[in-house]
Amino acid sequence: MRSSQFFMPTLRENPSEAQIVSHRLMLRAGMVRQASSGIYSWLPLGFKVLKKIEQIVREEQDRAGCQELLMPTIQSADLWRESGRYDDYGKEMLRITDRHDREMLYGPTNEELITEIFRNSAKSYRDVPKMLYHIQWKFRDEVRPRFGVMRGREFLMKDAYSFDLDAAGARRAYNKMFVSYLRTFARMGLQAIPMAADTGPIGGDLSHEFIILADTGESAVFCDRSFIERDVLSLDIDYDSDLEPLVKQWTTDYAATDEKHDAARFGALPKDRQVEARGIEVGHIFYFGTKYSEPLKAQVQTQDGQTISVHMGSYGIGVSRLVGAIIEASHDDKGIVWPESVAPFKVGLVNLKAGDAATTPMADDLYARLTRAGVEVLYDDRDVRAGEKFAQMDLIGLPYQVVIGPRGAAKGEVEFKTRKTGAVEEISAEAALNKLASRQGA
Amino acid sequence: MRSSQFFMPTLRENPSEAQIVSHRLMLRAGMVRQASSGIYSWLPLGFKVLKKIEQIVREEQDRAGCQELLMPTIQSADLWRESGRYDDYGKEMLRITDRHDREMLYGPTNEELITEIFRNSAKSYRDVPKMLYHIQWKFRDEVRPRFGVMRGREFLMKDAYSFDLDAAGARRAYNKMFVSYLRTFARMGLQAIPMAADTGPIGGDLSHEFIILADTGESAVFCDRSFIERDVLSLDIDYDSDLEPLVKQWTTDYAATDEKHDAARFGALPKDRQVEARGIEVGHIFYFGTKYSEPLKAQVQTQDGQTISVHMGSYGIGVSRLVGAIIEASHDDKGIVWPESVAPFKVGLVNLKAGDAATTPMADDLYARLTRAGVEVLYDDRDVRAGEKFAQMDLIGLPYQVVIGPRGAAKGEVEFKTRKTGAVEEISAEAALNKLASRQGA
């Protein structure tokens, strides 16, 4: 994509309404624009990141054996009356009346609807176990939306639901999701720490929040240093095997949010293993047994002819929130530092002197070759000051920058910069191409 | 995917609420379930088709130089007051009041919001031309929703918007979209015919509907037979070239919907070139000049310092509607006949005798090899009657079926069936694999 054509309205100044760094950087980089309070439009740069995150979430859900479907945003109030949550939910639920005066709502979550779908088709033990998920926009009418996409009103969430014959089966589903969450966040460059959690309005017996550490996190968290050094992607995970030992490994050491904090247990750790930090919730999983299947009558026949209510769990990931959370965890004073797996482009190619007889053909040629090699490039071909180009590239945080200036062009060389470390090498255009093409899919 | 695990609740009986064939077949094949009147959940089989159609639309928008972003579903009423459409829209607009008593709405289209986004960032002639699109759920509160996803209330639409300095520039954008629509529908196996159209609530001077022919179409259409024989995918299209001659080729011969029909002109055609049929609208494009940019003040400075309102167009494709429309255009009395490009799986692999010592290892092995080769397979490994398996495979309409029975297995052979023609060959498993793997991406 050429910068001269790309719709990326960056801002020079810090917008005054943004209190936290991710909100500030997303506005400045032209990733999002507020449409109404707590409601955002995703401009092309932000949309690309959102899609990459969504795709990682999807791949890891699929890998764990979860099947994707898509439920609508607008739901019937009657269904929520069956579970008793229509009245419980209060003012955070956006309530709507249609032209025939039927009461509807903009779904804040989907336990009721998925349970209805399941009960209308499942009849026997052969229809379970089943794990189903969707990635859909939700609405929560927050009283004071803030922090940009981190706490918006309209937000994109992945929510999965499991259906099993009994508590033991539900535990297996819970473990699959637990492990798949570790993998999902690790692929985005995040070290997510599972912490025992309250169940809130979803209800249930067993629940973990997945928390990433960031100075600007919304809540205080306390954990054993061991969590920070673990490498989950190196594990070879077979989702059909017994995952209990792995889950145990990740739930034995101390980790708790403010609400669940046990100062005595934490204090008993050696001082150098005590981590006190701020955390951002990026995922939340629940096992709630028959809380929804009983009132909604989601039942199946067992092999010996009994009728039982299925055991269920639900599993959420805040997809749009993750865009902000990753920035909170990965930025510096110049701007965003994207992990490669979610970067909107892999490399920014900068022609320092647009129209120059040496730099322009060299930059055009490298752009064409990178594109042919399947590398995603943002090519700054604009006729603006070098300083402005550098500042914008650092702001939007692509993993690599390739800069072509008159001095280098004379020698056939480019400057190859790694955004995260700031390291710069002078290498041939050919070598830059090879570096970028071979890192593809890394 | 193994059928024993796949969530595909098919129905044996025709659902009584479904009046048209696509609605009936989508319910029977377990592609969708109604959540509320005119609002559907997309089950895994239907979701796969929806995603394939969405991806073709996306690729062709990108190819034409259109950039993807994503606007929210919920919009502010105030913005629609600026264009004057808040009152015009009537009861089809789903109006919402939030917890702070602010008037909101569920967007039925996005001219206002995209114009606001553009006006807040564009300043000069350098910021145009620009084409932006999104693929987002919309809501129209139809008084009598019917025909399943063909006329639902919550529906997925691709809407693109163009911004240009003048009418000539806008015409170039219009032509790009015109041609990209021909390509988009052709890739889905549809012969879409552009017909001059009324502009309705969008307004404007120039408009075409893209209509596909189907017996169950909603409106009568009249066209020259020439349209039915054209092959658009064989054209090598350069979107930067002058597309006017190509657009002219597609708008010269007679084609009109009921509303715009000119019986005299149609009657003047030779009898054998007169096609009278039913049609389904799958796309609609508009040029409306400064209808929105003037009231909403979307202005830029020209090269000689004048301030002008930009010329705009908008361009819609009914993504969820297309799922139904393709079925209307492609089915037989046994079920759906998917074009390969949008089929949920490429092939259905049937083990006629689950558990059999000869058929099962052969089917398992072919399933594994097809999967490794990147072929999307639905593997019917269930222990049910052969007749039920055949009926279900025909119903869901995958392009190819590979059937492994005891007699064939003894000879190392499978039955390879092409759903569209019904042609069956007895070939080796190896040959079936080669046929399917080589057709990949065709």
From TrEMBL, chains A, B:
<feature type="domain" description="Aminoacyl-transfer RNA synthetases class-II family profile">
    <location>
        <begin position="33"/>
        <end position="339"/>
    </location>
</feature>
<comment type="function">
    <text>Catalyzes the attachment of proline to tRNA(Pro) in a two-step reaction: proline is first activated by ATP to form Pro-AMP and then transferred to the acceptor end of tRNA(Pro).</text>
</comment>
<keyword id="KW-0067">ATP-binding</keyword>
<dbReference type="InterPro" id="IPR036621">
    <property type="entry name" value="Anticodon-bd_dom_sf"/>
</dbReference>
<dbReference type="InterPro" id="IPR004500">
    <property type="entry name" value="Pro-tRNA-synth_IIa_bac-type"/>
</dbReference>
<dbReference type="InterPro" id="IPR044140">
    <property type="entry name" value="ProRS_anticodon_short"/>
</dbReference>
<dbReference type="GO" id="GO:0004827">
    <property type="term" value="F:proline-tRNA ligase activity"/>
</dbReference>
<dbReference type="InterPro" id="IPR050062">
    <property type="entry name" value="Pro-tRNA_synthetase"/>
</dbReference>
<keyword id="KW-0436">Ligase</keyword>
<comment type="similarity">
    <text>Belongs to the class-II aminoacyl-tRNA synthetase family. ProS type 2 subfamily.</text>
</comment>
<dbReference type="InterPro" id="IPR004154">
    <property type="entry name" value="Anticodon-bd"/>
</dbReference>
<dbReference type="Pfam" id="PF03129">
    <property type="entry name" value="HGTP_anticodon"/>
</dbReference>
<dbReference type="Pfam" id="PF00587">
    <property type="entry name" value="tRNA-synt_2b"/>
</dbReference>
<dbReference type="InterPro" id="IPR006195">
    <property type="entry name" value="aa-tRNA-synth_II"/>
</dbReference>
<dbReference type="InterPro" id="IPR002316">
    <property type="entry name" value="Pro-tRNA-ligase_IIa"/>
</dbReference>
<dbReference type="GO" id="GO:0005829">
    <property type="term" value="C:cytosol"/>
</dbReference>
<keyword id="KW-0547">Nucleotide-binding</keyword>
<keyword id="KW-0648">Protein biosynthesis</keyword>
<dbReference type="GO" id="GO:0005524">
    <property type="term" value="F:ATP binding"/>
</dbReference>
<dbReference type="GO" id="GO:0006433">
    <property type="term" value="P:prolyl-tRNA aminoacylation"/>
</dbReference>
<dbReference type="InterPro" id="IPR045864">
    <property type="entry name" value="aa-tRNA-synth_II/BPL/LPL"/>
</dbReference>
<comment type="subunit">
    <text>Homodimer.</text>
</comment>
<dbReference type="InterPro" id="IPR033730">
    <property type="entry name" value="ProRS_core_prok"/>
</dbReference>
<keyword id="KW-0963">Cytoplasm</keyword>
<keyword id="KW-0030">Aminoacyl-tRNA synthetase</keyword>
<protein>
    <recommendedName>
        <fullName>Proline--tRNA ligase</fullName>
        <ecNumber>6.1.1.15</ecNumber>
    </recommendedName>
</protein>
<dbReference type="InterPro" id="IPR023716">
    <property type="entry name" value="Prolyl-tRNA_ligase_IIa_type2"/>
</dbReference>
<dbReference type="InterPro" id="IPR002314">
    <property type="entry name" value="aa-tRNA-synt_IIb"/>
</dbReference>
